[in-house]
Recover the amino acids of this structure.
């Protein structure tokens, strides 16, 4: 019997992890400069949290959750996204009472959705996300969008497009909802059964149906933007003004509705416009969710955030032909000839590593020539070969691989030499 990774998941192999670590360190650095403190929540939560948070009529809740019963008979779900968990933690730990408001959180971790596997769509993927809870200042909307854009600029991506929209407030949504029902009702028989169910429960969800997206009634459907209340319009204008101040270009996209129920006011997505990018071009999505904190049992506190997956970020890098510079270097490879030399190598390796110098040697009994080859393959910056005469002299020729230059150095001086030259 042979085993394979479960469908929709992938192994990140040792050759690939340096790239991941590089991206993760860029993300952590950006969180630090923007001052979004990291939160780590469990990988699973009570199922009801997502039903209430993400929304009962969304694809995520209806079709994509990994839900299971634990041995105590509780219904638990592997988190499909991070916002509901962050808000749950915010309420549970009464962060609304903290002296510094708003609360600015960030997270990196795996999320799980039972989706059809295709390029850029996995069943386990790693999201980086941020949530700002406790501010309804349009300047924070612009800050959140700016942080998302900075992520992509920091890794060197150029072919990006920011789409923004306003989903308005409750009044906006109610008026739009009625208009949508009137629009779709006469022809609802032509739509899939999910859409038929959505008509009364949540007609907005019809607009992001993956089955009927090409139906002509989709294009002519009433736009939320035509129903914005004066207050919502003003808010949206302010957000755009701040984006202009930041020099961030955007496209106002009235069709952008997002696939989760908690959104209102600002909604945004960042797309890759690189020609080599696959069918799914959305790299990042987010928006405002005033009302979610209350839905999850907290006070009436507004919020906004976004999430992006590292998988799609890496695909976008590939599409633009960008190689991240990663630190995977080997400072020195020690070749040993004979038992005594090997003991010395073990000792030297330990002294190198204690000073942060990356060092390696042979552990599979290879001949000297093969060891040299190994050093070359591993990209060692320096190589030393220890045999009987080196032991006698307590010194060794250290060879810089790139130039081929050699210098004789006492064993006791090697660490200092490398610290100066590596
Ligand atoms: P979302 O649009 O469902 O929003 O997902 C955000 C991002 O996660 C997507 O733009 C994409 O980069 C990535 N993503 C989603 N599903 C997959 C998948 N199957 N495979 C690979 N990547 C995927 C949310 O999750 C919201 N919680 C975002 C948010 C935070 N809104 C406010 N705060």
């Amino acid at each position: 019997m042979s085993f394979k990774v479960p469908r929709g998941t992938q192994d990140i192999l040792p050759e690939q992890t340096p790239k991941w670590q590089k991206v993760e360190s860029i993300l952590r650095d950006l969180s630090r400069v923007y001052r979004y403190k990291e939160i780590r929540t469990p990988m699973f939560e009570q199922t009801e949290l997502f039903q209430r948070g993400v929304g009962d009529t969304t694809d995520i809740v209806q079709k994509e959750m990994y839900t299971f019963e634990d041995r105590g008979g509780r219904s638990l779900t592997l988190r499909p996204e991070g916002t509901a968990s962050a808000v749950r933690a915010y309420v549970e730990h009464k962060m609304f009472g903290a002296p510094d408001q708003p609360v600015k959180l960030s997270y990196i971790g795996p999320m799980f959705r039972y989706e059809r596997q295709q390029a850029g769509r996995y069943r386990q993927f790693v999201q980086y996300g941020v949530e700002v809870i406790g501010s309804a200042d349009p300047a924070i909307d612009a800050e959140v969008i700016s942080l998302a854009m900075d992520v992509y600029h920091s890794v060197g991506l150029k072919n990006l497009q920011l789409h923004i929209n306003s989903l308005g407030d409750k009044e906006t949504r109610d008026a739009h909802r009625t208009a949508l029902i009137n629009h779709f009702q006469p022809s609802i028989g032509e739509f899939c059964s999910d859409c038929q169910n959505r008509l009364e429960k949540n007609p907005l969800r019809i607009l992001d149906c993956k089955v009927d997206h090409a139906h002509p009634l989709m294009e002519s459907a009433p736009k939320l933007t035509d129903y914005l209340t004066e207050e919502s319009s003003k808010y949206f204008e302010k957000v755009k003004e701040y984006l202009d101040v930041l020099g961030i270009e955007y496209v106002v996209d009235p069709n952008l509705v997002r696939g989760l129920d908690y959104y209102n006011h600002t909604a945004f997505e960042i797309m890759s416009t690189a020609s080599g990018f696959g069918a799914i071009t959305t790299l990042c999505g987010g928006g405002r969710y005033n009302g979610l904190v209350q839905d999850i049992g907290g006070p009436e506190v507004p919020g906004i955030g976004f999430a992006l997956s590292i998988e799609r970020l890496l695909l976008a890098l590939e599409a633009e032909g960008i190689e991240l510079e990663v630190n995977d270097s080997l400072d020195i490879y020690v070749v040993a000839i004979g038992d005594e030399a090997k003991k010395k190598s073990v000792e030297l390796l330990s002294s190198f590593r204690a000073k942060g110098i990356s060092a390696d040697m042979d552990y599979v009994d290879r001949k000297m020539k093969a060891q040299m080859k190994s050093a070359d393959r591993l990209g060692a910056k320096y190589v030393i070969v220890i045999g009987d005469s080196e032991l006698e002299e307590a010194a060794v020729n250290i060879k810089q691989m790139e130039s081929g230059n050699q210098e004789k150095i006492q064993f006791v001086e090697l660490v200092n030499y490398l610290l100066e030259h590596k």
Observations:
- The pocket of histidyl-adenosine monophosphate is lined by residues 81-83, 113, 115, 120-122, 125, 127, 129, 131, 259-260, 282-287, 305-309, 311-312 (CB under 6 Å).
- The chain is about 35% helix and 20% strand.
- The radius of gyration is 28 Å.
- The CA atoms of residues 55 and 261 lie 5 Å apart.
